[in-house]
Each structure stands twice: as structure tokens, then as C-alpha cells.
Predict the structure of Acyl-CoA dehydrogenase/oxidase N-terminal domain-containing protein.
Amino acid sequence: MIRDPELINQLVDTISRFVRERLIPNEARLAEEDAVPPEILAEMKEMGLFGLSIPEEYGGLGLTMEEEALVAMEIGKTSPAFRSVFGTNNGIGAQGILIDGTEEQKAKYVPRLATGEILSSFCLTEPDSGSDAASLRTTAVRDGDHYILNGTKRYITNGPEADLFTVMARTDPENKGAGVFLRLLLRAIRPAWCAARRITRWVRKERIPATLF
């Protein structure tokens, strides 16, 4: 549903111009440096791209599915690596918190995701199980008030740069079924919390950046 055709047309026109004038001319630099140029990142934040689908009450634009699709078609005219850097904040980075998070977590993290102050990452894929959640091997074992997390995640978008990680893990290592999963919300504590190895690999010109241990 498009709520205000005039307003969404203005947004789409603005993003289309941004793609033509700023993103496409910087594709070669993006590929060479394997990173979104900092000035481009700042412009993305100023335009509200990190909060396209995040509700307005948390500082996002609150676009509907149809409105977001129109924006996505314009962003899709350039390298997907540009979309990856803000796409996770809008999608699997924020939606899990919005759907299942506590009110405290929503208030603490979602507004900062919407502005791009923090980057998010979703950690599901593993070396031996791919993105099959029922076969993952990473474990989260309860130890008092904490969990001991052990495992490896691979092909994690925003891995080296992210501040907030949603990690899928198995709570009972002995139970191989699909009903013993936990979704942990972790803040990055560098350099101690993990070893991140950047993977310089491009699939359809999209950066797949890191393995996390």
C-alpha cells in the first residue's frame, strides 16, 4: 500500500538521483577497497536508508512493503554491496528485536539502528550446515546468568564492522532436533569477543565479508 503517492515519489526520485550520481560512480572504489566509502555511508545515514522499514516511533521511515519495494528497485540499479550495509539494519537486524525483543531492548537498540549509529549483523550460516537452521552446530550453554557461546559463523554480512549481532545457537548440544534454538543478542566487544576474518569474495558483485569464531 502506498500511503502518500506524492511523498513516496519524491523519496524514490531522491534515491534514484543518489544512485546515479553517488553510488554508481563509486562502484569501482567500493570493489577496490572492499568497503563503502565513509562519505557515502554518512549520506546514507542522512537520507534515512538505515531506517527505511523501521517504524516511525523508533525514528525510522516506516515504509510499507510496497513503498520499500519501489525504493529497492532503485537501489538495485547499483552494486548490491551498497544495499548490504544498510539492508541488515532494516531487515533481519531490527525485525527480530521488533518482533521478539523486550521493550527495553527495542528502546535501547532500534532507534540507533534506524539512524545507522550502530550496524547490525545476523549470524545463522555455518561452515558445515550452511543456512539450514535445523542443522546448526553453534551452541549456547547456560552458565548461571550467562550463556557460553561456542561455534563458527560464516559469510556474515557486516561481520567485521557490526556493533550488534543476532546469533542463532543450539541450547542442547545433545539434542539434534529443530526445537532447541536460542536467538542471542550480542554487543561487539572488540577485540576480545570474536575473531573476524574478512573474506574477499564477490557473488553477483555483493561482498560476503567475514567468518566469526
Remarks:
- The longest strand covers residues 164-170.
- Residues 191-196, 199-208 have pLDDT under 50 and may be disordered.
- Strands lie at 120-123, 139-143, 146-150, 164-170, 181-187, 196-198, 202-203, 206-207, 210-212.
